Amino acid sequence: MKYIDIHTHGGLGVNFNTSEHNEIKMLLKELYKRNIVAICPTLVGDSIQNLKKRFELFRELKNNQEPNESKIIGLHLEGTFLNPNKPGIQDKSVFMEPTVENFKLLALEYLDIIKIVTFAPELDKDNSFAEFLNKNNIKAQAGHTQANNKGGAIATTHHFNAMPNISHRGENLALDCLFDDDIYSEIICDTIHVSKNMLRLFFTVKNPSKIIMISDSLPAAHCNSEIIFCGKKINKNGKDENGTLAGSVMFLDEIAKLAVKKGIISKQNIEKYTYYNQIEYLNLNEREF
Known about the structure:
Elements: E1 3-8, E2 10-11, E3 14-15, H1 21-33, E4 36-43, H2 48-63, E5 71-72, E6 75-77, H3 100-107, E7 114-119, H4 128-135, E8 139-142, E9 155-156, H5 173-179, E10 184-188, H6 196-205, E11 211-214, E12 227-229, E13 232-234, H7 252-261, H8 270-281
Parallel strand pairs: 1-4, 4-5, 4-6, 6-7, 7-8, 8-9, 9-10, 10-11
Antiparallel strand pairs: 2-3, 12-13
GO molecular function, one term: N-acetylglucosamine-6-phosphate deacetylase activity
Keywords: Hydrolase
Protein name: N-acetylglucosamine-6-phosphate deacetylase
């Protein structure tokens, strides 16, 4: 059983936004032992200066990987271009409007290391931001948003979370993308971020070929002490002092097994949702894993 996690912030106390080279190498080795063969290290919002330092570090790590490490596919930027009214745990003071100009200011020289960008489609007025990303082989994902439609996005980030709630009246992003057979959707199946019955609904309605199970794992995953994430203290349960969910405290292999145990997915579909769909979505070569 192999897994690819396209949305993870770290684990074992390792924070992809702040940890050093050797700490990240250690985590990559531990993930590989779990058959998590590849990941998109996910960065939350930060200053332009700090993010560029991260881009440099992960470029160096990606170019010098060892056989016993989870492979770095590319970075997932889940910060900077979000709606400040849907920040989740993140610091909205570092958010920027999703424009081509702002993206170039942040990351023009790092197109090779960035694979996914989460953004708020309603702030991308003419879809030019999403179009620029997609033309440069970067996946534009809708998340941390108040949008009622996907705009130029081709996927949703942690579906249901940090987006408008589904209602039996009207249309919105979460509902529309359930029935959109062309759009991929990330989903966290720890039964904390999304309830068991809502997960059952999701897996019943959503096109099976477009489901991407993720961990959204925090540095707190398998860490015996509270950690600092987005400048806030996060408890071992993945919540801050106010009870706001920051992410999960499980790795993808554990979440997949939990979903099977709770009857949310069947065992024979695990690799489809945690490996093969990811390969298709990111246009990866399976022989590399």
